[in-house]
Amino acid sequence: MDWDKRAEGLADQVTQPDSRWFAPVACVPRHQLVPRWWDRDGSGGWVLRDGASDPETWADAAYADRSLVTRVGGLHADHAKTGDRPEGLPTSSATLPSLVVRMLGHGRLGDGLAFLDLGTGAGGLTAYASHRFGAENVTSLDVDAYLTGVAGERLAGMGHHPRFVTADATEHVPGSYDRIVSTVGLPAGPGLRPVLAALEPGGRIATTLGRTSLIITGWKHLGGDVVGRVERDTAGFMLTRSGDDYPPALAELFALAESAEGDERGTGRYPVVDVANAWELRSMLEVTTPGVELRYQVSGRTRTAYLVHADGSWARAVAEWTDPPEVHQGGPRRLWTVLERIRNRLNAEGALPLLGADVRITPDGVCHLSRGEVECVHGRAVAAARRTLPPVPPFVRRACQASIAILDHAAERCGMCLTTYAACRVTVCALSLHRRPVALTASTAANYP
Ligand SMILES: C[S@@+](CC[C@H](N)C(=O)[O-])C[C@H]1O[C@@H](n2cnc3c(N)ncnc32)[C@H](O)[C@@H]1O
Asked: Could you give the domains of the chain?
């Protein structure tokens, strides 16, 4: 394949004229990293593409600024037979070059600095970094031994010999590094510990947090905290996995959400939204209510959104186009209501307090995000405790001090101002349409903590 001109065109497209990443993008034969990949077939399934048997499509795909999915569920395209139709989520890919370049920019790599590329995938980022700074400074890590092995061979074919490591980064990260760039969404909390531990004091990390589009960058201080910010830039990377594939989604709960009447039925205030693709909303949902899984369907003019959580909570919102949706909810938490509070806030303030927030990540992996008066703690283990607590009777709720959140459970804590239900003094009548704070009467006050 005559790839040089195409690679140069790609470099022109994804870098600025003075960018030091122009040459790496222009010099890496990206098609060699992605000889086979998976494409959408138009009905939501996956279809195999084989570069060797269709060189024109191969060249177009490899030198376009697009991500190429290389592995779906447990099946890598390199191992697939014609006609294979894998099901499941993408488990590896070649990230679109413009995003690779952006992440490298956030990482602020430099000459002689030990660099960890977390999430080898197809090896594109490893190749660019090796080309720019010399492979002797580059380590590329992936949970998947096939990926690290084959990327090693393909980069060797280009003359680059970085170190490849196979490890689950949420368990163990061998070595220590001055710079870490992750192209997999790392989990806040204990799963982040090994990565933080592998960062040298004075070192810098750039990563997204799982289920959010927030790019977090920060410098590691001598005390072990990483201090930085949420960049005013976004990216969506796949979640980490610890095995060959992701564990099965909450299939039973999704099945329940499809048809159950629920404990609460009502009319929602805002239209049904595809939360997964509403990145700021999705990020805020994850930061305030970690672990919600989503599905979204469109059939003619009918839109349906499902939200489920491992604690047994589920919600279904159905509407014709942008009409107010009919909402069914069940389980210990009201997930659609949680989402509506965030949307209230978005409408009232015009933005959510995430992009540009200050970040402090403690060595235990807990992320403290703050902007102005608002602080949000992400990655602290609270979900298990919550599950065992009975819900507070629904007609009296509490608002947090800053009226950001309505608290329904004795253990619930506002993710932003950290007031707990027990500590809060402001009560809200849940029957009131406008949720105006009302004074507790002596008799109701006696009943609730
Ligand atoms: C989006 S791909 C990386 C793309 C790659 N950087 C590129 O330039 O093409 C994310 C990768 O993260 C890897 N990954 C997922 N979970 C992981 C974990 N727990 N530890 C290390 N790598 C993981 C996946 O196997 C996948 O290859």
From this structure: 4-234 (3.40.50.150), 251-349 (3.30.160.690), 389-449 (no CATH)
